[in-house]
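Appendix B, example 12.
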Amino acid sequence: MRALPALAITALVVAIAISAGLVMEWAAHPGPSGEFAHCRTSARLAPRLYSGPPPTCIDPRRGYQGTVETSKGRISFVFLVGSAPRTVNNFVVLAVNGYFDGLDFFKVDDFRVQSGDPQNDGRGGPGYSLPDEKPAAGSEKWTAGSIGMARFQPGGLSGSEFFITRTAWPGGDPTTTYNHFATVTSGFDIVSQLTPSDRVLRVEIKSSPR
C-alpha cells in the first residue's frame, strides 16, 4: 500500500514537468497570427508532441510559398498543394506554430540535407506519421531542390522530418513514396552549404491566389 503514494507523487512530478515544458514552449512560440491564426495543431501532449495530425488549415484554391531561414541563409520554396495536400497542410501548421525553429540539420550528405526532428538524431517526431501521397505514375521527378518527408525503416512517413535534395535522386526516381510536397525556388546555394552544425532559425509561410 505504501507504493501508492510514491506512484502518485511520481505521476504528479511528471505532470508538472510536462506542464512546465508546455508553458516554456508556448512562451517561445505563442502561436500563429494573421492569416494563419486558425492553423492549430491537434491536442498537445508534451513539447513538440501531439495527439495526431493537425486539422485542415490550407485552402486548396490558393498557392503557398515558404522560406526556411537557416544559420547559413534563406531557402525559399513553393508547395505542391495539388499532389500532396495533406503533407503541405501538416508542414504549414507545424511551421506557423514554430515547430521547426531551432532544429538542427542533423543529417547531411552529398544527396540531401535533413531536419525536423526535435531530438536531432532521426528518431524523434511529433507523435504521428503521415499517409502516403503519391502523384500519378510518371509525373513525379525528384530533381535537385525537391523537398520530401523522411520514411522510418521499417514504418511510415515521419510527421515532421523533411529533407531537401542536393542532387537528382541517385539511380533514378524512387519507387518508394516520400511525399514530394515542395520544390526550392531560390537559395539552392544555401542548401549546398549546409552542414550538421547548421540549424533552422524559423520558417515563414505565405499564400497567394492560384
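The first strand starts at residue 44 and ends at 46. The two ends are 65 Å apart (CA to CA).
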